[in-house]
């Protein structure tokens, strides 16, 4: 017992008093020598009975410096007695209090401990087949630790304080390999608290482990300088919160699985571009991770939440997008090396894609700012995003995802989308709504191509959109849109003329069905209400309707159109152009009904002086049954008023959507005041218009690319005023033409048929109508009597013919005079000039014969007078054949010229032929007699017309002419030797 007691005493003395200073001394000397740094220890305590070791106040200085590199307050180790019989080291408790570490980065790749890592090069020890030593440690704790990191090149300092580590138990002994090791960790990293817990079986065959880590308020800006790549953007602020659990498991076959789950969040992110301009910011981006299994390539996101994102998109004048900076990171290394040609890794099969799913994505309170400076007129807009919700999104695409989104465009227009979509299968079934989307902010994207400026307009629409991916579709997708749309409160300005161009209150499209493949459009109803259109002809003669789209200045100029020919009957025709190649199939279009209500159209012509303006008001009507299907026609009904006075009606059967347009139209406008047309009249006719009203009745038919049209023009009381000095005015006698066309009621009633081929590239309905009118005026002036003849009796009225040598109006001439009288009575403004034309060659002999006949008839009148019988005019006396010889002889004997005599000196009796020959030979007829004949004929015609209600004030006698027949009119010789010719003024 004494020896035992002595042994205990010696053991106590050795443990309590001898070993502590020895351990302290060895620890200080050996550590200082090995570390090349000053090592200090305040105290070492050993309790041999409790088997504990305590080291207090250990500190290690910086090399060649008094700055502390590493220190701790106390290290406590409690060795368990079980170590003596369990074949390994068993520690009951290991505690480290107040550890402190100071790390300094001196330069790139050099730290204040770099020398400690430069171990001498030694040959590797031979591999040992011995088993690793067995151990068991319980109650491991680190409390109150801290780490100070001084990054001198970056001039940054970092602190980790309050480091606490707890590990209840760890062992590789057989009895404990299936017991979980559960360490925990907490610290404050640069003010951000960090918590972590671990459950692990590091020495079991499964290596089963679990790590739970919580990190809050980590300032990202403090760590971005250590990113190995050069960032093209500036991160002004940002916080990171992490709360994740990592699980690892490996089975006996070596198959490993790694599961990561938890929640992480980025907060108060503010990213700027290299110039400091705003780029991306958001309040919170939270990811709730259900499971991440990297070996199985599977990720499950339960929820992604994005709060208050603020994205600024800028396109500079060169078309460069600022967001591309996010993908332009420059790596600090030389870059990845391309695999060599013989490298088998280059031939490796690509990995299978991740099997991913997203339970819910939420975006709240977002804002997208867009500035586009690549346009002549910069665009600036914004999109507010109150909310976007996406649910059940999956990379496998077994079920469609759900979406609900609502955004505000430029603070007013609202866009909404609800429904489902499947990005994997390429399918979407969505309900789309648009409310009050303003068009004005988007003008920079079409203003450069148009000569109009949109000053107001809102788009409203809603409908169902169905899309499906299709490899056989030219656009890669098939689908349909069904719904309705309204373009309301619209207004556009004609920029070249600085005038209102278009405006309307509502342009509605109802029951719209749009199919993408094959492309077709069906619209149940279109309604345009309270609309206004301004049609302007510029000072250069250009129509604004044809100048809506700006022409390319470098585009080739089209050749001028050839003038259109006109037929002699006022029927214009155009040459048939060669038929073009077969046109492409027309896209199917069907429109159930188009309704127009409350429309105004204002026309202004600045090309003429003074300017002309007209208004078409109160336009209403409808079109029903419009379709591109061959053989179908739509019905058009249109009503309106010209200047609130003249009613306009249009009724038609049309089919403008078919490959070959069809038109059967009737239109009528009544009582249009013509005084506003005085500008055109003065410019082209040379006279202003004092009064007059116009009515127009038209019929147009287009079938098989051929136009047949009738234009009935009715002008009432057209009166010209003062002459206008216009270099473009016609030289034709317009007043005469109007007088010819105007009846006694002051009316001009014309029918102007036209026809032409739509295949002619120069075809123009307006050009045809103008050509017909010009031809009509030319015909009226050049052949006025032919025009009157076509209106009254259908024959030429420019002259009447007389029998040679006679002055009696023949029945044929009288019929012609009747028609002429009707024409003059119906055309009270016309004045008639009368002149006789006598052919001296043919009329002289005829006049001698008439003189002979009159002398014979005079002899009979003497007999009748003696008998008391009234005889009347000489020309009315009838001579019978049996009495003619005796009467001729009496007339012959009464003549004073020398006559043949018999032997006793008496006048010799001669045969009839001889007497006639002598009387004709000695007839006293010459040019004067011929002139008297012509004057007599002209007077008879004048008197006949006066007797038939033609005022003598309108008839003027002109001197007669002795000339060969036909020369007076400059035409071909006529059969008649005598005429009375007419001219009009």
Largest sheet: 34 strands, mixed
Level of helix content? 10-25%
Q: In DSSP terms, counting alpha (H) and pi (I) runs of 4 or more, how many helices? A: 11
Strand content: over 45%
Poorly predicted runs: 332-342, 557-582, 968-973
Structural class: alpha+beta
Give the distance, in angstroms, between the N- and C-terminal Cα atoms.
171 Å
Q: Radius of gyration, rounded?
A: 59 Å
- The 3D shape can be described as rod-shaped
Number of strands: 41
Architecture blueprint of SSEs:
Elements: H1 2-35, E1 39-40, E2 43-47, E3 52-61, E4 68-79, E5 89-97, E6 100-107, E7 110-111, H2 114-117, E8 135-151, E9 156-171, E10 184-189, E11 192-200, E12 209-219, E13 229-230, E14 234-250, E15 256-272, E16 278-293, E17 298-307, E18 310-315, E19 330-331, E20 355-372, E21 379-394, E22 401-409, E23 413-422, E24 427-438, E25 452-469, E26 477-494, E27 499-516, E28 519-537, E29 589-605, E30 612-627, E31 634-642, E32 646-655, E33 662-673, H3 678-685, E34 687-703, E35 706-723, H4 734-741, E36 747-757, H5 765-782, H6 784-791, E37 799-802, H7 811-826, E38 832-838, H8 840-866, H9 884-894, H10 912-921, H11 927-947, E39 955-957, E40 961-962, E41 978-984
Parallel strand pairs: 5-8, 6-8, 17-20, 18-20, 28-29, 38-39, 38-40
Antiparallel strand pairs: 1-3, 2-3, 3-4, 4-5, 4-6, 6-7, 8-9, 9-10, 10-11, 11-12, 12-14, 13-19, 14-15, 15-16, 16-17, 16-18, 20-21, 21-22, 22-23, 23-24, 24-25, 25-26, 26-27, 27-28, 29-30, 30-31, 31-32, 32-33, 33-34, 34-35, 35-36, 37-41, 38-41
Helix pairs in contact: 4-5, 5-6, 8-9, 8-10, 9-10
């Amino acid at each position: 017992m004494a020896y035992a007691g002595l042994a205990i005493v010696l053991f106590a003395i050795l443990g309590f008093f001898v070993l502590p200073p020895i351990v302290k001394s060895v620890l200080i000397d050996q550590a200082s020598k090995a570390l090349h740094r000053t090592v200090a220890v305040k105290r070492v305590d050993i309790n041999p009975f409790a088997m504990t070791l305590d080291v207090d106040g250990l500190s290690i200085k910086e090399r060649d410096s008094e700055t502390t590199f590493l220190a701790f307050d106390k290290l406590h180790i409690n060795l368990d007695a079980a170590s003596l019989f369990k074949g390994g080291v068993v520690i009951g408790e290991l505690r480290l209090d107040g550890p402190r570490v100071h790390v300094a980065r001196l330069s790139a790749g050099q730290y204040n401990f770099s020398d400690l890592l430069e171990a001498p090069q030694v040959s590797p020890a031979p591999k040992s087949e011995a088993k690793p030593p067995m151990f068991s440690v319980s109650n491991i704790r680190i409390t109150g630790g801290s780490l100070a990191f001084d990054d001198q090149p970056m001039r940054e300092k970092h602190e980790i304080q309050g480091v606490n580590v707890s590990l209840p138990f760890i062992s590789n002994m057989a009895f404990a390999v299936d017991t979980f090791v559960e360490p925990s960790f907490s610290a404050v990293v640069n003010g951000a608290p960090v918590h972590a817990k671990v459950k692990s079986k590091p020495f079991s065959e499964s290596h089963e482990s679990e790590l739970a880590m919580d990190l809050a308020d980590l300032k990202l800006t403090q760590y971005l300088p250590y990113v190995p790549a050069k960032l093209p953007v500036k991160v002004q602020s940002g916080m990171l919160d992490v709360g994740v659990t990592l699980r690892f498991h490996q089975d006996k076959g070596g198959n490993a699985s790694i599961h990561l789950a938890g929640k992480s969040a980025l907060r108060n992110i503010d990213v700027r571009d290299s110039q400091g301009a705003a780029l991306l910011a958001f309040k919170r981006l939270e990811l709730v991770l259900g499971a991440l299994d990297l070996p199985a390539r599977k990720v499950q996101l339960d929820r992604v939440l994005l709060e208050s994102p603020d994205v600024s998109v800028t396109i500079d004048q060169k078309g460069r997008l600022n967001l591309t900076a996010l993908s332009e990171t420059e790596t600090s290394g030389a870059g990845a090396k391309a695999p060599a040609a013989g490298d088998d890794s280059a031939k490796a099969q690509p990995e299978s894609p991740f099997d991913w799913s997203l339970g819910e994505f939420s975006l709240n309170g977002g804002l997208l700012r867009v500035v586009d400076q690549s346009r002549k007129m910069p665009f600036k807009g914004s999109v507010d995003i109150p909310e976007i919700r996406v649910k059940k999104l999956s990379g496998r695409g077994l079920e469609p995802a759900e979406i609900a989104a609502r955004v505000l465009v430029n603070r007013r227009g609202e866009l909404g989308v609800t429904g489902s979509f499947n990005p994997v299968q390429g399918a979407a079934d969505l309900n789309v709504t648009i409310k009050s989307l303003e068009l004005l902010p988007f003008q920079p994207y079409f203003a450069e191509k148009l000569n109009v400026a949109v000053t107001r307009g809102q788009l409203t629409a809603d409908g169902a959109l169905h899309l499906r991916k299709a490899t056989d579709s030219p656009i890669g997708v098939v689908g349909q849109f069904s719904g309705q749309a309204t373009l309301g409160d619209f207004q556009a300005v004609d920029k070249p003329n600085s005038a209102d161009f278009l405006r309307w209150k509502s342009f509605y499209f109802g029951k719209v069905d749009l199919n993408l493949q094959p492309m077709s459009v069906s619209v149940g109803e279109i309604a345009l209400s309270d609309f206004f259109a301004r049609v302007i002809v510029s000072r250069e003669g250009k129509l604004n309707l044809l100048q809506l789209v700006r022409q390319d200045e470098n585009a080739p100029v089209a050749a001028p159109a050839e003038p259109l020919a006109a037929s002699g009957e006022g029927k214009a025709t155009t040459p048939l152009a060669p038929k073009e190649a077969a046109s492409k199939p027309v896209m199917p279009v069907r429109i159930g009904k188009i309704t127009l209500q409350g429309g105004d159209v204002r026309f202004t012509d600045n090309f003429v002086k003074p300017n002309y303006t007209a208004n078409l008001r109160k336009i209403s009507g409808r079109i029903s049954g419009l379709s591109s299907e061959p053989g179908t026609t739509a019905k058009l009904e249109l009503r309106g008023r010209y200047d609130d006075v003249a009613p306009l009606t249009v009724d038609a059967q049309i089919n403008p959507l078919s490959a070959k347009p069809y038109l059967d139209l009737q239109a009528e406008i009544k009582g249009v005041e013509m005084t506003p047309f005085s500008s055109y009249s003065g410019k082209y006719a040379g006279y202003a218009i004092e009064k007059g009203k116009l009515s127009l009745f038209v019929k147009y038919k287009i079938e098989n690319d051929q136009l047949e049209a009738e234009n009935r023009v009715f002008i009432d009381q057209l009166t010209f005023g003062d002459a206008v000095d216009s270099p473009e005015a016609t030289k034709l006698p317009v007043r005469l033409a109007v007088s010819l066309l105007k009846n006694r009621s002051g009316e001009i009633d014309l029918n102007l048929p036209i026809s032409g081929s739509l295949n002619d590239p120069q075809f123009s309905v307006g050009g045809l109508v103008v050509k017909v009118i010009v031809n009509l005026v030319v015909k009226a002036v050049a052949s006025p009597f032919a025009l009157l003849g076509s209106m009254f009796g259908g024959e030429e009225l420019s002259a009447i013919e007389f029998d040679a040598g006679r002055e009696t109006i023949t029945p044929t001439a009288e019929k012609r005079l009747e028609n002429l009288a009707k024409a003059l009575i119906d055309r009270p403004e016309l004045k008639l000039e009368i002149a006789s034309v006598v052919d001296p060659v043919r009329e002289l002999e005829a006049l001698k014969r008439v003189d002979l006949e009159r002398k014979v008839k005079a002899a009979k009148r003497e007999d009748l007078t003696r008998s008391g019988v009234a005889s009347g005019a000489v020309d009315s006396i009838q001579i019978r054949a049996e009495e003619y010889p005796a009467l001729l002889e009496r007339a012959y004997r009464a003549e004073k010229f020398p006559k043949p005599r018999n032997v006793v000196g008496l006048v010799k009796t001669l045969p009839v032929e001889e007497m006639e020959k002598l009387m004709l030979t000695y007839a006293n007829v010459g040019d004067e007699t011929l002139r008297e004949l012509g004057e007599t004929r002209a007077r008879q015609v004048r008197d006949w017309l006066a007797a038939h209600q033609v005022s003598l004030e309108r008839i003027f006698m002109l001197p007669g002419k002795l000339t060969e027949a036909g020369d007076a009119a400059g035409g071909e010789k006529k059969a008649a030797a005598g005429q009375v010719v007419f001219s009009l003024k």
